[in-house]
């Protein structure tokens, strides 16, 4: 893993690809299935409230892969509870103090046993019922399970391609070291947008599966992931 990471850094001019501003706010909103207005508020703030996530390049309004993972984790609680942004920010500040790191949502501790830390934070700052606590724990665990990491932080993210977060297959991956961080079919390096564009151009799923040498199910996953975004 170390050799792979060092090689990736050489390709990116010595910079860690996890930290490079490479995504737009629209990219993040579409790929993570988070409303664009919410994504923008978490990253840039809104009238009377500070941002929750420190965007990698505020001037150009571009995100890093780390930012994507932070938004993914925040979406875990947003999915079950319409939480006001100021309360989310208080919870993140609580985790910063608790973990002693500037990016608590992507710290090693957060990504390994982060469910309890995240729940503790939101139980303190968000009105979550006992029934809601159980649901939230299950959803948080499902979201955290979509992140691969090492001792330094996040490595890759498996975004959801369906609305069923508890049973969604890990069929799509976002890895900042592969295809410059574009969503790809797992284990192939094939961008999902490439597959979807060919389908929209009239090619059948069967012909695409033959061309790529993949099961039709994988082709369908790429199309399902991308086509709602285009719509």
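Sequence proposed for the structure above (231 residues):
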């Amino acid at each position: 893993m170390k050799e792979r990471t060092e090689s990736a850094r050489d390709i990116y001019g010595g910079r860690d690809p996890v930290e490079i501003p490479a995504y737009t706010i629209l990219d993040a909103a579409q790929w993570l299935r988070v409303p664009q207005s919410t994504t923008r508020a978490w990253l840039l703030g809104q009238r009377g409230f500070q941002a929750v996530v420190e965007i990698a390049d505020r001037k150009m309004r571009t995100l890093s892969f780390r930012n994507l993972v932070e938004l993914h984790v925040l979406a875990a609680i947003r999915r079950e509870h319409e939480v006001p942004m100021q309360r989310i920010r208080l919870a993140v500040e609580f985790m910063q103090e608790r973990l002693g790191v500037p990016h608590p949502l992507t710290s090693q501790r957060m990504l390994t046993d982060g469910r309890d830390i995240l729940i503790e934070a939101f139980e303190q700052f968000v009105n979550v019922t006992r029934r809601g606590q159980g649901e939230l724990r299950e959803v948080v665990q499902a979201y955290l399970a979509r992140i691969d990491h090492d001792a330094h932080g996040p490595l890759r993210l498996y975004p959801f391609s369906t609305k069923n977060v508890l049973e969604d297959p890990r069929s799509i991956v976002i890895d900042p070291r592969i295809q410059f961080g574009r969503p790809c079919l797992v284990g192939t390096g094939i961008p999902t947008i490439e597959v979807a564009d060919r389908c929209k151009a009239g090619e059948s799923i069967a012909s695409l599966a033959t061309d790529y040498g993949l099961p039709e199910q994988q082709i369908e996953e790429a199309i399902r992931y991308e086509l709602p975004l285009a719509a």
